[in-house]
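so ive been stuck on this for like two days lol. basically i have the seq below and the ligand is flavin mononucleotide, smiles is in there too. i just want the complex predicted, nothing fancy, no docking runs or whatever. if the output looks off dont worry ill sanity check it later, just need somthing to start from for the group meeting slides
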Amino acid sequence: MDILEAIFTRRSIRKYTGEEITEEQLNIILRAGFAAPSAHNKQPWHFVVLREKKTLENIAQVHPYAKMLPQAGCGIVVCGDSNVETRPGFLAEDCSAAIQNMLLAAHGIGLGAVWCGLYPVTRLTKSVTGVMEFPEHIVPIGLVVIGHKNEDKQTIDRFDAEKVHYEKW
Ligand SMILES: Cc1cc2nc3c(=O)[nH]c(=O)nc-3n(C[C@H](O)[C@H](O)[C@H](O)COP(=O)(O)O)c2cc1C
């Protein structure tokens, strides 16, 4: 799929068939995450792949808006290493760039995906840290839920000329 087509047609998919994604598909999505830009090129991310039913259920239990995770069959928790953060805030920005790359890659290869937020909701980051046994310097930023689509979503044009400013406000 062409990059612009991918950007303009990507939607959050929350209904899945349950069919497993392949290792090759997972690998493409991970590589897309690693390809993201990052402040000072620190690449502070870690990607925790979740595929076991029990783990998917455990995360769905603590995240009220990620209940689709077990049905999707695959989740990737994108975490940042706070020891590598150069300035407060960059960790979340870097990991968010990786997440968006992964969403687009999943869409580009015909899969469905949705970004489930973790950071900065302390309740969620704490719960996920507990379930995943993250060390203290690892901050879970977001969860990418991935699977085979079981819904079709319309493309939406969100361009809003009132939010575009030229030269000054
Ligand atoms: C930081 C962030 C957190 C989000 N958290 C959730 C979530 O927990 N569960 C969910 O189903 N969707 C979540 N979303 C997806 C948004 O609801 C979705 O992107 C938005 O409604 C626009 O729809 P679209 O992705 O189909 O264009 C999140 C998106 C972002 C960027």
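The chain has a mean pLDDT of 97. Residues 11-12, 14, 65-66, 114-117 surround flavin mononucleotide (CB under 6 Å).
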